[in-house]
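ok, trying the design again with the full structure, not the truncated one.
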């Protein structure tokens, strides 16, 4: 694995340049070998992406599950090649959405972690915009308002310390259903809590960037912004510090986030 050096962090001087090793091949190989990985949709990788008329209509699953992400041409996100640190991504304009080809989460799962890299592009009303959620189960989700990241229908919020519009959002959102525990981890920010309102999974497809079917549009809307990748783990990664660090480092290198500061 290559070495990462951030001069402005090492010396505490923001005026010094950021030097970052952007090789992610070794890190990605480790991520794909993690035993709980159930889906890995990488919008930035042209080798797994189908594009028609500038829109992304399919993302092949990089996990062993083979549950690909698809979209109808009329509501597919637009391919962008510059906004997320020069890496390709999918732009969701509030009408776009993608869905897994088959059921992803199973009701019997006790552990679930969503891993997402995204950027919200504008202030929204309603303020909640959805990154990932069940096709009909709106209570298991990751979303943002204009300042915070939320999980599982207002069960837990991570305050980002100011507006998050235009900022890199590297999110690890974990839930342990039997213990009613959830956690959200981002760069230099973390929150966790227990004894939360109970949530359950359904055996159904997963939406990316799209609000659940039949859910109240006054509570949330489709995502407005960019998504670089999405991963789903049957695991509570809050208790796996190594995997969490690996996932955050993957995003740092891939999207050159230190240079966004």
């Amino acid at each position: 694995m290559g070495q990462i050096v951030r001069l402005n962090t090492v010396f505490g001087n923001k005026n010094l340049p950021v030097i970052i090793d952007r090789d992610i091949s070794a890190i990605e190989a480790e991520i794909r070998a993690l035993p709980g990985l159930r889906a890995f949709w990488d919008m930035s990788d042209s080798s797994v992406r189908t594009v028609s008329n500038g829109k992304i209509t399919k993302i092949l699953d990089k996990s062993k599950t083979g549950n690909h992400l698809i979209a109808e041409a009329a509501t597919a996100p637009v391919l962008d090649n510059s906004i997320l640190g020069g890496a390709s991504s999918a732009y969701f304009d509030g009408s776009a959405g993608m869905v897994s080809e088959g059921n992803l989460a199973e009701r019997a799962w006790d552990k679930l972690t969503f891993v997402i890299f995204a950027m919200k592009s504008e202030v929204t009303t309603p303020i909640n915009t959805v990154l990932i959620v069940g096709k009909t189960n709106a209570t298991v989700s990751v979303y943002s308002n204009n300042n915070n990241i939320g999980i599982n229908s207002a069960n837990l919020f991570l305050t980002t310390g100011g507006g998050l519009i235009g900022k890199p959002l590297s999110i690890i959102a974990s839930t342990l259903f039997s213990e009613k525990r959830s956690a959200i981890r981002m760069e230099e920010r973390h929150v966790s809590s227990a004894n939360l309102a109970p949530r359950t999974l359904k055996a159904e497809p997963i939406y990316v960037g799209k609000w659940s079917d039949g859910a109240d549009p006054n509570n949330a809307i489709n995502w407005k912004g960019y998504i670089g990748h999405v991963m789903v783990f049957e695991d509570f990664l809050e208790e796996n510090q190594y995997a969490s660090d690996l996932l955050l480092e993957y995003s740092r290198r891939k999207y050159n986030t230190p240079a966004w500061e």
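Keeping the full-length input from now on. The CA atoms of residues 81 and 88 lie 4 Å apart.
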